[in-house]
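Re: export button greyed out
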Amino acid sequence: RSGEMAKLTQLIDNEVFRAYATYATIVLLKMMLMSLITAYFRITRKAFVNPEDTASFGKGESAKKYLRTDPDVERVRRGHLNDLENIVPFLGIGLLYALSGPELSTALLHFRIFTGARIAHTFAYLIPLPQPGRGLSWAVAYSVTISMAYKVLKTALYL
Amino acid sequence: RSGEMAKLTQLIDNEVFRAYATYATIVLLKMMLMSLITAYFRITRKAFVNPEDTASFGKGESAKKYLRTDPDVERVRRGHLNDLENIVPFLGIGLLYALSGPELSTALLHFRIFTGARIAHTFAYLIPLPQPGRGLSWAVAYSVTISMAYKVLKTALYL
Amino acid sequence: RSGEMAKLTQLIDNEVFRAYATYATIVLLKMMLMSLITAYFRITRKAFVNPEDTASFGKGESAKKYLRTDPDVERVRRGHLNDLENIVPFLGIGLLYALSGPELSTALLHFRIFTGARIAHTFAYLIPLPQPGRGLSWAVAYSVTISMAYKVLKTALYL
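Workaround output, generated via the alternate export path:
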């Protein structure tokens, strides 16, 4: 089966596909970072949602007071959900776009702007920056995904 | 590297794969539309969640009153989350299904019913239609995904 | 086009790719199960969020009392969202990892540990088990994804 494996390796050798693999991984790692930031704020702000998570603070009322929402925790969680809503379309549409035979330079432009805009979005959400900082970074990444979707449908449309 | 590029283009030339690319893109664009509908309701209902989003309405108490939940906004957000919960499995399982060598007509049937059911689900959620409208459209799309998962496991099972 | 179809079938014939297809499907089916568990708890606990879902319980006040949150429903929903946050990165990074030419035994180790850890996470969340049961299962699956991401970037990096 080494022949097949070679064929697969060829896919990952294709430059557009490698660029997709790189930026998709970066943007997914960025999204995964949100879990760690949420955990950090939950622990430092002592704001938990599951009773079993506060057991180490004692029993009964003394632990119950840590079952509460905290504005910083909720802010990170909103940023995380916004990542899911926007990075899932990028993953799917971006993969199909990478397979639709775009120019390498055009593909790199799409992947780089999307990734940069989503990283900017995270900073804008967590600092937070005044609007329209967050709104603009969201709209840029959204538009890049729409542009890739247009290329996919133009190349592959089969209804 | 043009030989490899040609090979990739062959993947997107495959009719089952093109059908997957088309319906996956449509259903992701539909999901992305939920962000715009949420933004529309947040602005028209003046119901925001981040303090920095209400800064244009003035300072202090006059802006604070717009930091509130609105039933229409929450409804769209639930529809959006339900999309994520159901479209993510379709993306992953559907891709593997498209690569598992199904008949073109069978594959089209799966992709079309899933996409139609999820569009119906959005209408059922946002209008809203009386039950079991929303429940049925959810169940149809769910069943289509299960059917594709069965084919994938039957073809590819390697534990 | 049977030649191309054969080529696609070769992809699904590759053992690493078949292993990815198998475990990705299993973990997505597990995630889809959370929808059914949520529905089960909503119905048995009579705790709904959409007014149209309580219409069968009568009109006006008699139905309104079922529009409420229930701790068991909320717990399942948190588990479901945690699945989305962690299984989406596995889907994307795992696919790229499977295409990056890993050893079959190494790939199987990654896929099996991730899948086992996420199933353990669900049990830890729903029973619930005392901490650090849920935390550990989460961290194991998270670390496996990071390990795969490292291999993808090492193989494919193209910035």
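The first helix of chain A runs from residue 2 to 13. The button fix ships in the next patch.
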